[in-house]
Amino acid sequence: MLEGGGLLIAIYVFVLAGFIGFEVITKVPPTLHTPLMSGANAISGITIIGALLIVGSSEGLLTQILGVGALILATINVVGGFMVTDRMLRMFRRDGRRGPSA
Amino acid sequence: MTLDRDIIILSAYLVSAALFILGLRYMGSPATARMGNTLGASGMLLAIIVTLINEEIIRYELIIAGVLVGGVIGVIFARQVKMTAMPQMVAVFNGFGGGASALIAVSEYFRLYDAGTEMSLDTSVTIMLGVLIGTVTFSGSAIAMGKLQEIITGRAIRLPLQNILSAVLFLVILGLAVSQIGFEANPIPFVALIALCLVLGVLLVMPIGGADMPVVISLLNSYSGLAAAAAGFVIGNPILIIAGALVGAAGFILTQIMTRAMHRSLANVMFGAFGAGSGGAAASGVAEGATVREGSPEDLGVLLAYAESVIVVPGYGLAVAQAQRQVRDLADLLEERGVDVRYAIHPVAGRMPGHMNVLLAEVDVPYDRLYDLDQINDDFERADVAIVVGANDVTNPSAREVVDSPIYGMPILNVDHARNIIVLKRSMSPGFAGIDNPLFYNEKTSMLFADAKDGLNRLIEAVQEN
Questions:
Q1: What is the pTM of this model?
Q2: CB-based contacts of B234: which residues, under 8 Å, 6+ apart?
Q3: What is the nearest CA distance from B174 to chain A, expressed in angstroms?
Q4: What residue numbers bound the domain in which B241 lies?
Q5: ipTM here
């Protein structure tokens, strides 16, 4: 039934992942919205996978140049994104003196 | 690619996707968020490693070079960026994400072109979509970054017939894209299409004022996710589609939260050119001849020292004056005297969602002292003192009361309900919205005209004398 429906299955995956994202991210409190955003930046660096495939397999000069460009940009996103998010989250601390509240 | 490797790679991608989702789930609380980020990073590392065993990959020299260059730049960015500059950094990263996705789509186009393969309908549609979203994200983010860094004026810049121009441009792009679909690949209109998409990104962000940047960054964040998903459609890779959809959803939710906090629609932010200087005095509910009362630091120090509960309302002016540490010092001093000190954070207190929380976390303000609008608004009436530092429009009661006010309906912090109000401000100049704030004329309000750092230091000294 799904033969030849590659694009349609891809759309299924996209829509369902979007719903999961919506459910999960709605629960992130406002205090973490900046780290959420920089963390999301890092995850959108997933294009590094596409860049790796292009750079590692392509023959033409032009596609290689484009691929290396994509690889550099995506790697900056991945490395910079996860690192800066960690740097921010390290700063978040509870109030030790009062114990749990609110 | 042999079937075995194919299955290994796809299974590993599934694990990566699960790690991304769990990672985002752990972002639900500050106590587990760091762990969540680590889970996300592990998912990414796994995806990268299994991709490298793909048989299609035959050369590693360029890969190593590209990853080294990108990695070093990424580390420098992450280590050097100041917390006040986080919005710019996120804008840059949104742009890079969009750029990378666009480059992948463009490179796939030329790979097919070189091979002389006829493009199927599916392929050409996904390539055009990838190029459009990725490129608009790239150039739009560049402009957003320039505005945040103040390389470009933060004011809304509008060309005559701006919206019509953008619409026409979009139609031309659409026409060019359609002309590529299902026909023989033709690089000249394709390159023109890329150039026009770059222009469109610029045109879309230029007319948006500096105060609306939290919305724009959130929206571009969403686009960078959609661009990654589009790239996933182009190369038929599920992990790109899943991760891209997750990021797209995150950006979408944040965009909604920001527009709601400003009581504006997304269309109004994008095409309304708020803050372009509509001219004329806007209704504010301030009576003619109303006067403000100036308080002396000594008197205000006494007020604070003997208060039971104090709510601090920080705005972006605080960060501009680099006075976060002084706020914390004042709060520490008051807490030592047994005063209950809390912080009320409006969603648009900073230049991006959650920005003020990070700026306060940086100076060791515990996150459980920070309250958002819904959590704290009813507590203002029980607060002895509310101190407003560098915030204006988000405390303006006319948003609640004056129907003609341009900000009417915007959710505000009910600072005017506190028993006493201290407003620390350099001058009487209005905020971004350009409207007067009746809070300053309230009989419970004492104005302390000073630079935030200086004014807070004077309050600290005054409290110490009691």
A1: 0.91
A2: A50, B104, B105, B108, B123, B126, B127, B130
A3: 21
A4: 88-278
A5: 0.93
